[in-house]
Amino acid sequence: MKILLTGVTGYIAQRLLPVLLEQGHEVVCCVRDKSRFNKEKYNTSDLKVIEADFLNKDSLQNIPDDIEAAYYLIHSMSTESGEFGEMEQTCARNFTERINCTSARQVVYLSGIVNSEELSRHLISRKNVEVLLSGNNFALTTLRAGIIVGSGSGSFEIIRDIVEKLPFMIAPRWLRTRCQPIAIRNVIEFLNGVLGNSETYDQSYDIGGPDILSYKEMLLRFAKIRGLKRHIVIVPLMTPKLSSYWLYFVTSTSYALATNLVNSMKVEVVCRPNKLAEQLGIKLIDYDTAIKMAFGKIEQNQVLSSWKDALTSGILSKGLSQYIEVPVNGCFTDVRAMQLKNSAHALDKVWAIGGKTGWYYGNNLWKIRGFLDQLIGGVGMRRGRRSASDIYPGDALDFWRVLLADKAEKRLLLYAEMKLPGEAWLEFKIDDKDVLTQTATFRPLGLLGRVYWYSVLPFHGLIFNGMIKKIAEDQIGKSGDLSSKVVS
User: What is the mean pLDDT of the chain?
Assistant: First the structure.
């Protein structure tokens, strides 16, 4: 079957794609920016990647006419504009108009559970999208999920942040709200199981695991599995705004997403009974097992996708390809080079930089810079990295975004997503003579940008010099410093 897959750089689609390919389907992936998608890792001729922005109707002409089914996995809840509902409806209208002109017989939509009279803006938006997708030339199958638990999922990482960082919590009253979490493995089984299944055409189903828990119970059970003793005191006076700030500073989420999550967490999301799991032969995974399975993937360094890779500052809305050519004119640069004794070892260090590994020198200064960025609404250093060893274009890397990661060329290029009065790039490259060149480039925006550069210059001299020396060290001794220069 020829399938259109949307939201491909998102958490769910990256888990669903290999399953569809394994079953022999031909998959057409829609991405806004091809440079954010690594097609090579799938090594199959059944995968085609096209650029399509569902906010831009004209770009949807790239969608083939002969697709037979489509997955609609587009969500905009983390947008900083606050108009995610309007954006989601525009995307749905444009998608529907284009798919109506194709051979698609079915569209599968992953939505949220909407069985409460008082819905959050997030859930209202999902419901409106479902209405827009209904009653067209294709049959619609809607799967409605609540909290999704799996390695790299937003819900899992937020719960992990709270539990592992806070031994004692003074928490808002929405922690008493009940929900029905579902394991990511079950979500993918449902998404795959309804494909081409005529019995599910023009039907909607709530999907959840076997446990109905309050958020407080979820936190405490997570802590028990991790061998941690945690105490939670719920106070009724914490306002939604204060709750959003609490979630923003404690977890890896952005403030915009924290606000929408808090509003959603006040609404009970418990599944209405149905027999879809039995019909598809799916064995539902309980919450505790889902947590253990997630940590199993983390410990084996097998996290396929992370919600943090989709969590962006919005700076790169034009696409990664617009920033790969690092500018020269009107820029400040800090260039340092070192002769390597063990280039393979140094390359491995470059590929492991950031996240839990850190930045090899001045990690506390990096953390302070991340905290300051977070105070003014930036992404901070909380995103870490998806994998300890693998890295691909489009990945989040602390407060950087990976623009280029070519191990054959021995080149890694990062772009800053922190709040800055200008733009910043950081590049590592090893040449044929085993010389490592580390280049920091800053293009200032006006006078404030120039003041910023000179104010942090002493710290750059310390951090960047220490960083390249640590990367260049082999297991026996240190490499020699070839050159170091700062250019304006």
Answer: 84
47: β partners: 27
Q: Which of 70-79, 333-342, 475-484 has the highest mean pLDDT?
A: 333-342
Confidence class for position 162, pLDDT limits 50, 70, 90: confident
Q: Which residues contact 180 (CB under 8 A, 6 or more apart)?
A: 113, 146, 147, 208, 209, 211, 212, 213, 269, 270, 271
Q: Residues with Cβ < 8 Å from 329, sequence gap 6 or more?
A: none
Measured from the Cβ of residue 66, the count of other Cβ atoms closer than 10 Å reads: 10
Whether the CB-CB separation of 471 and 344 falls below 8 Å is answered with no
Catalogue the E-assigned strands of 383-447: 396-397, 400-406, 411-416, 422-430, 435-444
pLDDT in the model for residue 313: 46
Length of the chain (residues):
488
Other C-beta atoms lying within 10 Å of the C-beta of residue 10: 17
| Of 38-52, 264-278, 367-381, 412-426, highest mean pLDDT | 412-426
Q: Provide CB contacts within 8 A for 474, sequence distance 6+.
A: 340, 341, 342, 345, 346
Positive/negative CA dihedral, 255, 224, 151, 173:
negative
Quickly tell me which residue has 């170091």 as its tokens. 484
> pLDDT value at position 477?
47
| Of residues 5 and 480, more confidently modeled | 5
> Do 141 and 230 contact (CB within 8 A), yes or no?
no
Contact predicate 362/466, CB 8 Å: yes
How much is the pTM?
0.70
Rounded to 10 degrees, the C-alpha dihedral 20/24/30/31 comes to 70
The per-residue pLDDT for 256 is 64
Nearest to 436 by CA among 472, 389, 474, 465: 472
> Alpha-carbon distance 298 to 295, whole Å?
5
Is the pLDDT reported for residue 318 higher than 60?
A: no
- Cα end-to-end span (Å), the chain: 56
Bridge partner residues of 435 (DSSP): 339
Say how far apart CA 252 and CA 256 lie, in whole Å.
Answer: 12
Backbone dihedral angles phi then psi of residue 306, each to the nearest 5 degrees: -135, 140
Whole-number Å distance between alpha carbons of 481 and 31: 42
DSSP 42: G
